[in-house]
Design a protein that fits this description.
Blueprint: H1 2-13, H2 16-25, H3 40-52, E1 56-61, H4 69-88, E2 93-97, H5 108-125, E3 129-131, H6 139-150, E4 156-161, H7 167-175, E5 181-184, H8 199-215, E6 220-223, H9 227-239, E7 247-252, H10 257-265, E8 270-276, H11 281-290, H12 293-304
Parallel strand pairs: 1-2, 1-8, 2-3, 3-4, 4-5, 5-6, 6-7, 7-8
The structure holds flavin-adenine dinucleotide.
Protein name: proline dehydrogenase
Binding site for FAD: 133, 161, 185-187, 199, 224-225
Cofactor: FAD
């Protein structure tokens, strides 16, 4: 049953018509629990609140299904505005972005130029940028662009997904750049030809990849809500004399808030991924796919209107 629900929400997350409708009607169905707001101003308030509790942030302007150069330009400008706001308001925040929302599927020249503009401004104002990882067909292109950009910019990191067979090689491949990598399990529906179908294998690989990243001496963002993963990494770090400055935990906005604060109290750096913007629909559906228990919450939200 859980798998059916998961596949259903992943399918819905990719529906362009529903995405367009959702954009028009603003945050609905309890999406406000997972999305900080539909504007930059709303995200600022959420970030200030998190910072005041000792939590760092990476903010993400939601955007999917981009098909024109003009849309990619709007998203690029939004990213530049976001890094400027982080600096002006002295927020403890980084920026996360998705290449498809900046023109990855339109042309190589466009995505390179948009990323260079964002990274140049981010570097000027001292903001770190993480390229989120999307579905597997875009993974190689993402890694290649990351490698290219990393040669000119040191304020850039990317994401590795433990459900992909290729990820161990990718960590070794980008390791030479002493890269800050966020390691996640993976949020898309992938075939068994490229990804582990069983959760047990994804979890096992998750720990293996974080350990690999740390053993290379590189910084790891341990992005998971899973206590089993968190506890194993804490133990590994203690046993191997790896300081708290070599890794951080990351969780999504609105998920396991108590646990985030507990980890801060224990002396760990915790970064919250704060999505904002009108394009909230696909992101929201993927959160429901991950945890069907969230559906009960959403149904309550729908009843309340
Ligand atoms: P799961 O395997 O989903 O769950 C394991 C256990 O964690 C559960 O049994 C439960 O005990 C606990 N748990 C999980 N969710 C909840 C909850 N809502 N409430 C209470 N307990 C819960 N994916 C990508 O593909 N690309 C990205 O770029 C990307 N960036 C991310 C950035 C951040 C900061 C985070 C946290 C995740 C990101 N993801 C990304 C999503 C990721 O791939 C997973 O889909 C998502 O984190 C769910 O996996 P999990 O490791 O949290 O645990």
């Amino acid at each position: 049953m859980e798998r059916v629900l998961r596949d259903g929400f992943i399918f819905l997350s990719q529906n362009k018509t529903l995405n367009g409708l959702a954009k028009r009607y603003g945050l609905k169905f309890g999406a406000g629990r997972f999305v900080a707001g539909d504007s930059l101003e709303a995200s600022k308030r959420a970030i200030q609140d998190l910072n005041s509790k000792g939590l760092c942030v990476t903010m993400d302007h939601l955007g999917e299904f981009i098909s024109t150069v003009a849309e990619a330009e709007m998203m690029t400008q939004e990213c530049i505005r976001a890094v400027e706001m982080i600096a002006e308001e002295k927020l403890d925040s980084q920026l996360s972005l998705k290449l498809t929302s900046l023109g990855l599927d339109i042309s190589d020249e466009l995505i390179r130029s948009n990323m260079e503009r964002i990274l140049t401004r981010a570097k000027e104002v001292g903001v770190f940028v993480t390229i989120d990882m999307e579905d597997e067909p875009r993974c190689e292109k993402t890694i290649q662009l990351f490698e290219e950009l990393r040669q000119s910019f040191d304020n850039i990191g990317t994401v590795i997904q433990s459900y992909l067979y290729r990820s161990e090689d990718d960590i070794k491949r980008v390791g030479r750049f002493e890269t800050n990598l966020r390691i996640v399990k993976g949020a898309y529906k992938e075939p068994a030809t490229v990804a582990f179908p069983e959760k047990e294998d994804v979890d096992h690989n998750y720990i293996k990849l974080v350990k690999l990243q740390l053993s290379l001496g590189n910084y790891a963002a341990v992005a998971t809500h899973d206590d089993a993963m968190i506890e194993q990494i804490i133990r590994y770090a203690k046993e191997n004399g790896i300081g708290n400055d070599k890794f951080e935990f990351q969780m999504l906005y609105g998920i396991r808030v108590e646990r985030q604060l507990e980890l801060v109290k224990l002396g760990y750096k915790v970064r919250v991924y704060v999505p904002y913007g009108r394009d909230w629909y696909g992101y929201f559906m993927r959160r429901l796919a991950e945890r069907p228990a969230n559906v009960a919450f959403v149904l309550k939200g729908m009843v309340k209107g």
